[in-house]
Structures are given as structure tokens and as C-alpha cells.
DNA sequence: TCACAAAACGTAATGAATACGATAAAATGT
DNA sequence: ACATTTTATCGTATTCATTACGTTTTGTGA
């Protein structure tokens, strides 16, 4: 997803356009990997000195709710990345740099037969390690 | 894993026996599901009034390190459960009560072919939802 | 039973995330 | 263009889980 697509989604949901939001989106559009709220704050600081935590977190959660970002818990800290909306898949995640690689394998179909009487709402399949550059 | 097996593991690693440790272990031996540090603290409080956070967390991490417990992050809070050591498997986890059900399916073999140049260190496959009792 | 290493206590500190009243800014209708 | 309304942001305080640490207590092996 690119910045324009994301801004369109925002507008469709009736949310306003601001310079900060565009900058947040372009941060994630450029970084094709999982980043933390702190990473984003450090990126924003130079241009918007004194930007508040509220703004960072509110927008991160808003963007996730409307489907612009996706998130995962990595050692106790929430990480965010631009959502890849084209099809269902999972991620390899580099422990060092947060880089992600798409995994096509998804075992949910076979798993469903194992969970007949359970109400499945969600699932998480992540592989962790080091990417070629970080090895 | 039962309490005696766990105590044996502790002794093998040269750690000491204490009443608190046995109680912590019997808590997890009884509860066949993911529990938080707070859950454990509430269980210990009546018998050991004034037990400290240090004791709780130190033992939880120790037990995980020697392979007595396994842990996962669930909405920003670490959850622990007795490790089922017999064979590799994953879990369905109930969002309400933390109950777990073993899943035999593990897609790592096929995934490895997708990640030739990546150093795989770990993986997580969890299914979330409601167990029959909580629906 | 004595000495020493490990465990626990009590409490303070850290760090991520959330909350909130006040202010500012963007969209909308006239 | 202007006023109105709605949303966004600021500044800061608070919550909550977790970690840290100096001191005291307690197992354990000689």
C-alpha cells in the first residue's frame, strides 16, 4: 500500500487530512518492515518538535483500525507495518532489523478440522530469525 | 509435566528447593492453560502474604529458561503455562479463559523451502478464539 | 552446625501505553 | 469568505507490567 491509497482510505472513513498523518504514512510506506511507536517518534521529532505521544499512538491505532497498518507484539513492544492487502499471507520477521518476508504457506485449512467445537476468531503464524543482510 | 518432574529439573540445574517454588509449580501443574504473573501472585498471596514481585518474576523466568514453563505474549502481557515436553506442537488459545488445546499441524517443513537464505531461529503459530465452554 | 551461595524481601525505577482537559486546526454549509 | 462543527493535537499525568537492587533470610553441602 502506498501513501495515496492510505489517504484515500482515511477520507473514505471521514478522517481528516493533516501533514503529520501524511508524514506518518510515508514513513511506513518507505520502511517495508515492522517499526515501533518510538521509531516513528524519532522520525517525526526533527520536523515536528514537541509532537506528543498521544498523536503517535492515536494515529497508529486509527490506521490499524481502518486497515492501513497491521501490528504484532515483539518482545513486549507493539510493532507496526504497512498492511499488504492483496492476499492472505504471513511473515518471516528479522529479529535484528524488523525486515519482513512474505510466507505463502498457511495451515489454517487443515487446522480447522482439528478444532471442530472451537470458535476460531484469529490466528498468528510468524517465523523469526535473521535476514540475509543481518547474518 | 508434573511437579516432581519439574523439581527434578530444578535440582539437575543446581537450583534450590523452596516451598514457594513447589507452590508455584503446583499452580501451573493444576492450571492447564496460560496464566499471567498477576494470576500467580493472587494464588500465592493467601499463603505467602507480602510475597514480592521479584520472587514471582525471577522464578517465572528461571522456570522458562530451564524448560519447565513456556510463555507467549497475549495483548501486551506475558502468559505462562506448564511446558508439554513430549512432542512439538502448537496451541489454540481461548481469549476468555486462557485454556489451550494442542494443534498437531505444523507447517514449518514446507515453510523452510520458502526461506532458503534466511536463518530461522524460532516460530510461533497460535490460533485464538473461544473454547466450547466460553462460547 | 557452620559457612557460603542462592533466594526472597521491600521498594524504587523503568518503559510502554493510555487518559484527559484545553487548545488548535481542518472540513463543511451558508 | 466566515462561522460552525467536528476532529486533531498538545502537554502532561497516570496506569500497568516488568525490571532492578541493596539487604536480609534461607537451603545446602562440607
UniProtKB/TrEMBL annotation, chains A, B:
The entry's keywords: Cytoplasm, DNA-binding, Iron, Metal-binding, Repressor, Transcription, Transcription regulation, Zinc
Name of one Pfam family that matches: FUR
Example of a GO cellular component annotation carried by this entry: cytoplasm
Binding sites annotated in the UniProt record for Zn(2+): 94, 97, 131, 134
Cofactor(s) listed: Mn(2+); Fe(2+); Zn(2+)
CDD domains on file: Fur_like
Gene3D superfamilies assigned to the protein according to its UniProt record, in alphabetical order: 3.30.1490.190, Winged helix-like DNA-binding domain superfamily/Winged helix DNA-binding domain (1.10.10.10)
Family: Belongs to the Fur family.
Protein name: Transcriptional repressor
Gene Ontology biological-process annotations: negative regulation of DNA-templated transcription; regulation of secondary metabolite biosynthetic process
Residue numbers binding Fe cation: 88, 109, 123
Species in which this protein is naturally found: Aquibacillus salsiterrae
Subcellular location: Cytoplasm
Entries under InterPro entries matching the protein: FUR, Fur_C, WH-like_DNA-bd_sf, WH_DNA-bd_sf
Cofactor note: Binds 1 Mn(2+) or Fe(2+) ion per subunit. Binds 1 zinc ion per subunit.
Molecular functions per Gene Ontology: DNA-binding transcription factor activity; transcription cis-regulatory region binding; zinc ion binding
Amino acid at each position: 500500500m502506498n501513501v495515496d491509497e492510505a489517504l484515500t482510505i482515511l477520507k473514505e472513513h471521514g478522517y481528516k487530512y493533516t501533514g503529520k498523518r501524511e508524514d506518518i504514512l510515508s514513513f511506513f510506506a518507505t520502511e517495508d518492515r515492522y517499526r515501533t511507536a518510538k521509531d516513528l517518534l524519532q522520525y517525526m521529532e526533527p520536523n515536528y518538535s514537541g509532537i506528543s505521544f498521544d498523536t503517535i499512538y492515536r494515529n497508529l491505532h486509527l490506521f490499524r483500525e481502518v486497515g492501513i497498518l497491521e501490528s504484532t507484539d515483539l518482545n513486549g513492544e507493539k510493532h507496526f507495518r504497512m498492511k499488504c492487502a492483496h492476499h492472505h499471507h504471513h511473515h518471516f520477521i528479522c529479529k535484528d532489523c524488523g525486515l519482513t518476508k512474505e510466507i505463502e504457506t498457511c495451515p489454517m485449512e487443515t487446522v480447522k478440522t482439528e478444532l471442530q467445537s472451537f470458535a476460531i476468531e484469529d490466528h498468528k503464524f510468524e517465523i523469526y530469525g535473521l535476514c540475509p543482510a543481518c547474518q
